[in-house]
């Protein structure tokens, strides 16, 4: 797919946000439980004056359609259950996504359980996708960090990190669970971190473009 780099800034898996997703243990819950995914390629419209979340697009490598990223906002049903990737409602293909390193590890360990049924599961998943995108109204969707929503999103992120790193990871590594005092301190730490994360993402997603002129 040929991308107009005068109009779009291309972000691959090497982008810092994608790398954070890959190394973040909490991404396991997002990917494997909720089915929230991040595409391998993201395009940012450099010519639009709109906020970042309104000028971000996901290209489909199968039909070259540029999808508004808001199609997969967490406020919509299509923001979840994307276990096999992001469905392209233009051609029926699947937009490739990155995966957390911890998800790869967990999937590898549990492969004998689910691996035999992967093709069947994916086929059934694809069959259900078209209906999920019918009458999808995403253009009025606001960023999950807009207004005061950043606070709730930050707290949810903090709780997920607390559960993953403070409880699940220690139990998975050596079968232990931290003492109550340690858990409370970890909870406070991650909630504070969630507040910082939420507000930082608000500033990031609400950042408006400069509306630069396309080169001719």
Summarize the structure.
The chain is an alpha+beta fold.
Tell me what you see in this structure:
The chain has two domains: 1-141, no CATH class; 143-216. It is globular. With 216 residues, it is of the alpha+beta class. Helix content is 44%, strand content 9%. It contains seven helices and six strands; from the N terminus they run βααβββββααααα. The strands form two sheets. It has a four-stranded antiparallel sheet with strand order 1-2-3-4, with no helix packed on it. Strands 5-6 form a two-stranded antiparallel sheet.
Entry keywords:
7 helices, 216 residues, alpha+beta, single chain, two-stranded antiparallel ribbon, 4-stranded antiparallel β-sheet
List the helices and strands and how they pair.
Layout: E1 8-11, H1 16-23, H2 27-34, E2 42-45, E3 56-59, E4 66-68, E5 86-87, E6 94-95, H3 101-109, H4 111-114, H5 118-132, H6 149-174, H7 180-205
Antiparallel strand pairs: 1-2, 2-3, 3-4, 5-6
Helix pairs in contact: 6-7
Class from helix and strand fractions = alpha+beta
Helix content: 40-55%
The main β sheet shows up as: 4 strands, antiparallel
How would you state the average pLDDT, rounded?
A: 88
In spatial order, strands of the major sheet run 1-2-3-4
Give the uncertain stretches in residue-range form.
212-216
- What general form does the structure show? globular
Number of helices: 7
User: What is the radius of gyration?
Assistant: 19 Å
Total number of β-strand segments? Answer: 6
Any idea how many domains? Answer: 2
Task: Kindly estimate the percentage of residues that lie in beta strands according to DSSP.
Answer: 5-15%
How widely separated are the two ends?
21 Å
